[in-house]
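To the structural biology subgroup,

Please find below the input and predicted structure for beta-lactamase, which we are adding to the shared reference set this quarter. The sequence is reproduced verbatim from the submission form. If anyone notices a discrepancy with their own records, reply to this email rather than editing the shared folder directly, so we keep one authoritative version.
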Amino acid sequence: MHNVLISFLLLLAYSFSAQAQTFQPELEVQPHSKGVFVHISYQLYGGTPFPSNGLIVVGDTSVLLIDTPWDSLQSEQLVQWVANEIKKPIGYCVVTHSHADRTAGYQVMQRHGIPLVFSQETAALSQAQGRRLQGIAHERDTTLAMAGLNAEIFFPGRGHTADNQVVWLPAQQLLFGGCLVKSKEATSMGNVADADLAAWPTTIRQLYTKYPRLRYVVPGHQQWGDIQLLMHTLELLKKHTP
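Predicted structure (tokenized):
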């Protein structure tokens, strides 16, 4: 029996190892609303591919990216997709916080001459994690105005991280909540290693006040939706906060 158990464990370990070695993530792009696409990248989580969302926002003459994909390969795929399908240059890439699911493709962006836009706090936290962002560092809140496109970058308070920002697209009434906002599929708060659970509910309520005309919400992971995602996030916080 002992030998059978050892054999089973070795087989299980080999299976996970083989899966990790053969996993080749492929970027997905899905249309969302007028002039907006969601780019979806993947990494293994618990042995299963798990999605991470970012945005492609198309202006009159250029494109705005919200967050990089989860690795360099998928970030390169994103740049090539925009070149092939949109056929407009990428003006900026906004980074909403310092974790790898937002910043892993920073070197790809820099190699293609795409300026990163990030808060000073995100720059400091990224550098502490080994990623030196280069581009435009701002205090906390700013607006990017491009031809046919406006994007408001806002820090609503601590939550998922100390530096988590959101991006508001007024033309589409779309809020990119990033990892501050949980999807309907989420049953936990996910990665809370750098979270401020006590402040998180107040931060979410700030979004209600700031964006009364909100129509769409795109979370950092899994399926997007509407204002109900903010309520769902608050409900999860009630369940998972001591």
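Summary notes: Residues 1-20 have pLDDT under 50 and may be disordered. Residues 24-178 form a domain with the Metallo-beta-lactamase; Chain A fold (CATH 3.60.15.10).

Regards,
Lab coordination
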